[in-house]
Amino acid sequence: MKKFFLPALTLLILTACSGSHRFLSGEVSDVRTEDGEIVSFVLTDEEGKRTGVLVPEDAHFTSRVDLDAEAEKELLLSGRPGTSVRVEYNGKKTSLTTEGGEKLPACTAWFVAVNGYLEPDAAALRDGTPLDLFHWTSGVSYRLKDGTDLLYVRDSVGPENSVVAGQESYDDLSETARQKVAACFRDRGLLYDVAEELEKSYAHYQTRSPNKPTPCVGQDISPAASNDRVMYFLTTVDTPIHGDGSANMEQMRISDAFDRETGERIDGWDLFACSPEEAKRALLDLARITEQPLRSEMEAALRPECIVFFPSGIEGWFPKGSLPSQDASFGFGLDYDDGLRAILQPWAVPLAEPQTAAQ
């Protein structure tokens, strides 16, 4: 499924079975079956309210996680604790009596979708502490047995399933180029270590305030710019800053350029019409960076993959720790004016308004 980088919509989850509201969400329990088919279950929402759900034969099952419809039904039939669903329903409120004699208000479902499910004892820390894995719609949470989420790992995006509004995408490359670009990123793999991030989160989770979000890690690859010869991709890697009790994130950014017909990766310095040393000096001159020792540190640390190409200009990006005089990440931006164009290869400058039709 394509993932679009557009402003997120705010979703309001309504967890009531009365009035005009027609859906609810919560954790499944008390599953009742007949002849191997689900006929009812109980849904408990975040506030602890229990609602019965009647499941007719024509109810539709689907999944928002890594399950097909049949696997979803099997999961619900198993009665495994920790399974979260969204139910859409028709008709008026009715009632359900559980096998334990509890009488509950109930709805009749026409649509049931698994939003997440728990995989017990799926991982462990180095000291043997067991961890459960909770599967969400776009990632997984590593969870302690007391219910504490140590780390949320977002599903990786791109380059095949990443689209940026107004930009050409992976699909606009030639077939040969698509295969080589995908292979390049596949061979590079993830640029973070889940096991290491888990250990850091575990070491500091007790200092986290109860209302602080769970630390998150993720990696995305998206198209950044293009012209009739080159397509640029940007890889962003987000990792949590541990140890201060906050939910702050650190980001690493990596730029890659590919020949859009052959798929060959283009060395970043080949995008410039001068030597790497001359390019570094010219870029820092254009950015008016003269202060020492910052200037010398940036010349030493600047790598071509740190220079990100966008339709309107470039950004130089230095991750935290790469510049000794700086406590945080650092960067500069330049427009494609005459000074920048003078040191770039003419064919390397992206189009300000790229075509969107397949080539």
Give the SSE layout:
Elements: E1 3-4, E2 23-34, E3 37-44, E4 50-54, E5 60-63, H1 69-78, E6 84-97, E7 103-124, E8 130-136, E9 139-143, E10 149-154, E11 162-163, H2 175-188, H3 194-204, E12 216-226, E13 230-240, E14 249-259, E15 265-266, H4 276-286, H5 294-301, E16 307-309, E17 313-318, E18 330-335, H6 338-341
Parallel strand pairs: 1-11, 4-7, 5-7, 10-12
Antiparallel strand pairs: 2-3, 2-6, 3-4, 6-7, 7-8, 8-9, 9-10, 12-13, 13-14, 14-15, 16-17, 17-18
Q: Name the assembly state.
A: single chain
Q: Look at the helices and sheets and give the structural class.
A: alpha+beta
- Residue share in helix: 10-25%
What is the CA-CA span between the terminal residues? Answer: 22 Å
Question: What is Rg?
Answer: 26 Å
The overall pLDDT average reads: 87
Describe it for me?
This protein is of the alpha+beta class. It is 16% helix and 38% strand. It has six helices and 18 strands. The longest helix has 14 residues, at 175-188. Residues 1-20 have low confidence and may be disordered.
Structure keywords:
single chain; 359 residues; alpha+beta; 5-stranded mixed barrel; 18 strands; disordered N terminus
Question: What's a quick, concise take on this entry?
Answer:
The protein is an alpha+beta fold. It has helices at 69-78, 175-188, 194-204, 276-286, 294-301, 338-341; strands spanning 3-4, 23-34, 37-44, 50-54, 60-63, 84-97, 103-124, 130-136, 139-143, 149-154, 162-163, 216-226, 230-240, 249-259, 265-266, 307-309, 313-318, 330-335. Strand 9 (139-143) and strand 10 (149-154) form a beta hairpin.
